[in-house]
């Protein structure tokens, strides 16, 4: 399988701010790749370098096998972009803006355009200044998807969309994936990424700190285990990779490193399991592991506290959904 | 959750504080805070305008005693400025009755600096009213404890404050300079006359800001009123005096400051400003935040074929500005053309002028007047050239360039299409002004040959306008944040090429400006070499600018 995007060691500074600090990213052909990170992590900068709008200070970037800076125009015929902050021309209608963007890209499938306008419930006759943020976003999404681009670069495309439109967006990206298109989806809406993406890269302070399928990423972190046993579980505290162990009224609660799960389950089974609840780390927990450490390093030993901080994580998950 | 269900009892208690009683909050609540905020935002802009106006005026006034040391010199200046053409440029003839230094200053400068004061007053008011609404920032502000008319009141107060400071600055700088015949009383009136013009146009901008939903449109409409006021006073000062009495600039000039020192014409300015402010408030009461007076209309759901071509698209973005300047320059040309006949008649009347003509190498009064008018027209066309050439900058920082440049549209074609409109547009508006000048000139002198002659004379400035576009392109391509430095060209052309002879600047200074290299048609004959050189320089600048833009990062902040 070839790679639609391969980036290595990308560095980009704006004055004293180092926006990208040796960023590596690989997106395979035909995959939907989630690009996760908080505001200011370097997601938009990466996309703009890939678009040839910014020139990297150092490092290499290949897009569909070509140089995004030198071959920008040729590449742009094969890709479509939705910026995170869509600004429209105040005296042009949304319909005109869609046609302008799509035709300048090299072509417009009229039927698909009209169908998308219908699905996203967009009024194309309104002038740019009278659109809300969500509607401006829709204009850019429709313009991007109305063309036959092989590669979609989407920078937090659904910011400002209502939940119904979010569902439409997920359907449309699903169709794009089925049609074999490659998608790089920058987002901080974890539910969206979990639903749509084959693989995920987590970016922080201008570097990708973790990359892989969701399953792989989950493997790297801790699974929460809660069990009620007939007898007290012996030896659990002596095991490596068991964190946050608590025992109350015969209930055991702990967080287990992926590689040690088997050992823990054996010990529990020996003590007679009455009930067992185990859940893999949510994406929130993955994110918190990388971002929830304003004071310590990302791999600080007490990271468990945060991984285990179910309340905060779930709260964030609810908010995101 | 908890916070939401807690009864807001503590808040109620503080509401009863008489000073903060919401029931007593009126439509002007928050004006003071917004005024301080506006002054903070304009802490550089306003002082620069004021200092520049005060310094420019006091430098000019200070140069007079050296330039016109003898009564003879003053007499010849009086005669040079007494032709109808010169009156159309400067101000009413009554100033000439006793041409002291003060009268000279008021006659030659008040009309121009009054326009500049009006410009900055208009821009100040639209910046703090309609521009805020257009960007959506006003929504945020108005959602706070801010009355309906507070932003308008704060914007007008900012303009009033700036104008009062300017008036005092002018009074002190001129009154304290110790120039003969420029005393304290006259100087206070001189400053107040500027402030009065500024107040009128601040209030006019307050009205136009209610009419259209665009800040650009609001400024443009107010500029149109300003242009009309200037033309009315020009027409009135040459012909029917009554026309000048329709113009706020005319009122300011009819104080006959340093000659008669009349204060009462300024009451007309004050009354007009109050009337316009009342109208603005009435209009503001009739509309929604962010909306114009008329409801927004829909438009086509699909783009026409021309729009999706880069040049067609650039044309769409530029056409409003271009039409505005085309009309303004045509009307300005027509206005000057209408006094061209009078200029011709002066030859027999003023003996001293014949000496001046000899210096111009045998050109007629009409021809040398036409050559001088051409500079003014070229300066206005250069203002258009800079505005048009700087449009890519506004598109880029407004984030509207980003989605376009992510399509198959190359940077060279995107910027090139904007520059193409700027090049052709500035050429067209310049030619139109020459055409209007020539057409009315032909009508008043009966010489039909003036139409092609003056159109050609105007077109001779095209290469200088292209250089202006080229300079803006280089700045935009290499130092985008410094794009505004391109304003040095129209400003420099005005100071060096138009005011230069009045201020008796040394000859070499005109060589600094591309406009100084243009042959002074029709007073001089055509010289192709400088035009060709200017064209080549323009081409080189454009190429360098485009190359720079292809190499740099897009700025999206």
Automatic annotation (TrEMBL), chain A:
Topological relation to the membrane, as annotated: Peripheral membrane protein
Region span, Disordered: 291-321
Localization of this protein: Cell membrane
Main subcellular location of this protein, as a coarse class: membrane
ABC transporter domain ranges (all copies): 5-230
A GO-annotated cellular component: plasma membrane
Entries under InterPro entries matching the protein: AAA+_ATPase (IPR003593), ABC_transporter-like_ATP-bd (IPR003439), ABC_transporter-like_CS (IPR017871), ABC_transporter_ATP-binding (IPR050763), P-loop_NTPase (IPR027417)
Repressor found in the keyword field: no
One Pfam assignment: ABC_tran
GO molecular function: ATP binding; ATP hydrolysis activity
Coiled coil among keywords: no
Similarity comment text for this entry: Belongs to the ABC transporter superfamily.
Stated name of the protein: ABC transporter ATP-binding protein
Species this chain originates from: Streptomyces chumphonensis
UniProtKB/TrEMBL annotation, chain B:
Biased composition (Basic and acidic residues): 13-24
Transmembrane segments: 46-64, 105-125, 146-176, 188-209, 221-243, 263-285, 320-339, 369-390, 419-442, 454-478, 485-505, 525-549
Domain of life: Bacteria
Region annotated Disordered, chain positions: 1-29
Keywords: Membrane, Transmembrane, Transmembrane helix
Name of the molecule in the record: ABC transporter permease
Species, as recorded: Streptomyces chumphonensis
Lineage: Bacteria, Bacillati, Actinomycetota, Actinomycetes, Kitasatosporales
């Amino acid at each position: 399988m070839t790679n639609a995007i391969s980036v290595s060691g990308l560095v980009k500074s704006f004055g004293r701010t180092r926006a990208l600090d040796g960023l590596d990213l690989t997106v395979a052909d035909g995959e939907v790749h989630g690009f996760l990170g908080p505001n200011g992590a370097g997601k938009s900068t990466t996309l703009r370098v890939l678009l040839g709008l910014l020139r990297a200070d150092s490092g290499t970037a290949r897009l569909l096998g070509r140089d995004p800076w030198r071959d920008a125009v040729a590449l742009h015929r094969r890709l479509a972009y939705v910026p995170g902050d869509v600004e429209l021309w105040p005296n042009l209608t949304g319909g005109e803006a869609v046609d302008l963007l799509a035709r300048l890209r090299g072509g417009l499938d009229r039927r698909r355009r009209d169908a998308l306008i219908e699905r996203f419930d967009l009024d194309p006759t309104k002038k740019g200044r009278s659109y809300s943020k969500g509607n401006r976003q829709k204009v850019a999404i429709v313009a991007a998807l109305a063309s036959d681009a092989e590669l979609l670069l989407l920078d937090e495309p659904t910011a400002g969309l209502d939940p119904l439109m979010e569902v439409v967006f997920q359907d449309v990206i699903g169709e794009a994936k089925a049609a074999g298109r490659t998608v790089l989806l920058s987002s901080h809406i974890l539910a969206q990424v979990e639903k749509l993406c084959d693989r995920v890269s987590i970016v922080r302070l201008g570097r990708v700190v973790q990359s892989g399928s969701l399953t792989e990423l989950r493997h790297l972190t801790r699974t929460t285990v809660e069990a009620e046993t007939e007898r007290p579980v012996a030896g659990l505290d002596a095991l490596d990779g068991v964190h946050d162990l608590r025992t109350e009224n015969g209930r055991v609660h702990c967080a287990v490193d992926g590689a040690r799960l088997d050992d823990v389950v054996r010990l529990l089974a020996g003590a007679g399991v009455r009930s067992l609840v185990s859940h893999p780390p949510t994406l929130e927990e993955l994110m918190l592991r990388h971002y929830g450490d304003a004071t310590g390093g990302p791999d600080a030993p007490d990271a468990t506290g945060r991984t285990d901080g179910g309340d905060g994580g779930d709260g964030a998950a609810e908010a995101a959904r | 959750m908890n916070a939401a269900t807690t009864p807001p009892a503590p808040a109620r208690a503080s509401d009863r504080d008489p000073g903060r009683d919401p029931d007593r909050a009126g439509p002007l609540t928050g004006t003071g805070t917004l005024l301080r905020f506006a002054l903070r935002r304009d802490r550089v802009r306003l002082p620069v305008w004021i200092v520049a106006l005060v310094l420019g005026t006091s430098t000019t006034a200070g140069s007079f005693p050296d330039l016109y040391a003898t009564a003879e010199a003053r007499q010849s200046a009086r005669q040079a400025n007494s032709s109808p053409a010169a009156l159309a440029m400067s101000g009413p003839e009554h100033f000439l009755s006793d041409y002291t230094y003060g009268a000279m200053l008021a006659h030659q400068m008040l009309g121009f600096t009054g326009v500049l004061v009006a410009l900055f007053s208009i821009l100040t008011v639209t910046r703090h009213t309609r521009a805020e609404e257009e960007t959506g920032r006003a929504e945020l502000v108005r959602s706070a404890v801010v009355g309906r008319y507070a932003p308008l009141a704060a914007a007008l107060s900012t303009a009033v404050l700036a104008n009062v400071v300017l008036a005092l600055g002018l009074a002190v700088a001129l009154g304290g300079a110790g120039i003969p015949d420029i005393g304290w009383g006259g100087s206070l009136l001189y400053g107040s006359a500027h402030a009065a013009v500024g107040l009128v146009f601040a209030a006019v901008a307050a009205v136009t800001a209610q009419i259209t939903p665009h800040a650009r449109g609001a400024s443009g409409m107010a500029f149109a009123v300003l242009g009309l006021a200037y033309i009315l006073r020009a027409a009135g000062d040459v012909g029917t005096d009554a026309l000048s009495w329709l113009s706020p600039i005319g009122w300011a000039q009819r104080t006959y400051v340093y000659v008669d020192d009349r204060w009462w014409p300024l009451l007309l300015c004050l009354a007009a400003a109050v009337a316009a402010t009342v109208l603005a408030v009435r209009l503001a009461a009739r509309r929604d935040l962010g909306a114009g007076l008329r409801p927004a209309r829909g438009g086509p759901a699909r783009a026409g074929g021309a729009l999706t071509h880069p040049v067609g698209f650039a044309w769409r973005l530029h056409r409003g500005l271009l039409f505005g300047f085309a009309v303004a320059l045509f009307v300005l040309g027509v206005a000057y053309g209408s006094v061209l006949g009078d200029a011709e008649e002066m030859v027999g009347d003023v003996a001293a002028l014949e000496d001046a003509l000899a210096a111009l190498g045998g050109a007629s009064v009409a021809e040398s007047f036409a050559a001088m008018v051409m500079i003014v027209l070229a300066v206005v066309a250069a203002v258009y050239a800079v505005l048009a050439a700087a449009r890519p900058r506004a598109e880029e920082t407004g984030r509207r360039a980003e989605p376009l440049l992510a399509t198959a549209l190359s940077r060279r074609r995107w910027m090139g299409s904007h520059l193409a409109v700027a090049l052709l547009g500035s050429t067209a508006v310049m030619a139109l002004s020459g055409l209007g000048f020539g057409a009315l000139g032909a009508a008043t002198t009966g010489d039909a040959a003036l139409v092609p002659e003056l159109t050609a004379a105007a077109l001779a400035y095209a290469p200088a306008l292209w250089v202006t576009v080229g300079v803006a392109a280089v700045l935009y391509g290499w130092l985008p944040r410094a794009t505004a430095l391109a304003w040095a060209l129209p400003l420099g052309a005005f100071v060096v090429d138009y005011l230069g002879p009045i201020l008796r600047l040394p000859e070499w200074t005109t060589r600094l400006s591309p406009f100084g290299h243009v042959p002074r048609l029709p007073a001089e004959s055509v010289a192709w070499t400088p035009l060709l050189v200017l064209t080549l320089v323009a081409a080189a600048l454009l190429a360098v600018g485009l190359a720079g833009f292809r190499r740099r990062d897009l700025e999206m902040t």
